[in-house]
Amino acid sequence: MGPTMTMGCVQMCTFGMAPMPFLPIPSNIFTVEPVGSMVDIIPFMNIMPFAMCVSLLNPMVLSATIAAFGILIPMPCIPIPVMPRTPAAYNILRDDALPVATVPSMTMCAWIGVITPIVPDQFEVIAV
């Protein structure tokens, strides 16, 4: 298990063109930084658009590419997560109910993109 996903964590989609920050839902318990849970996957709230999308399963990208005679045309990203973040830390609960998302946690977009953290806000300290 890696560090937990907090407010400053940066995430990226495999079909997106720009990394974006992770924005967890505020917790009922006061902490220094809001910690994300495995269900923090709401588009435009927890997951911001990754600038442009290049997945041909995205209908906008597909139609623009067809109109350009097969030249891939990126279109604005509209993330549509389809599953909770996995793996999660089931032994650490946010608000005594939701498992906390860790840095290896990923979710899938409806356009087959994999949304994963690329820069954690916290770093594990390894004793030598």
Explain what this protein looks like in three dimensions.
This protein is mainly beta and 128 residues long. Helices cover 7% and strands 28% of the residues. The chain contains one helix and seven strands, in the order E-E-E-H-E-E-E-E. The chain has one helix spanning 59-67, and strands at 10-13, 20-21, 52-53, 75-76, 86-94, 98-108, 114-119. The strands form two sheets. Strands 2-1-7-6-5 form a five-stranded antiparallel beta sheet, with no helix packed on it. A two-stranded antiparallel sheet has the order 3-4. A hairpin with a 3-residue loop joins strand 5 and strand 6. The longest helix is centred in the middle third of the chain and has 9 residues, at 59-67. The two termini are 19 Å apart. The model has no long low-confidence stretch (mean pLDDT 87).
Number of helices: 1
Which stretches are low in confidence, meaning pLDDT under 50 for 5 or more residues running?
none
Give the biggest beta sheet.
5 strands, antiparallel
Q: What sequence of helices (H) and strands (E) makes up the elements?
A: EEEHEEEE
Strand fraction band?
25-35%
**Fraction of residues in H or I helices:** under 10%
Structural class: mainly beta
Can you give the mean pLDDT?
A: 87
Q: Identify the overall geometry.
A: elongated
Radius of gyration over alpha carbons? 16 Å
Distance between the termini: 19 Å
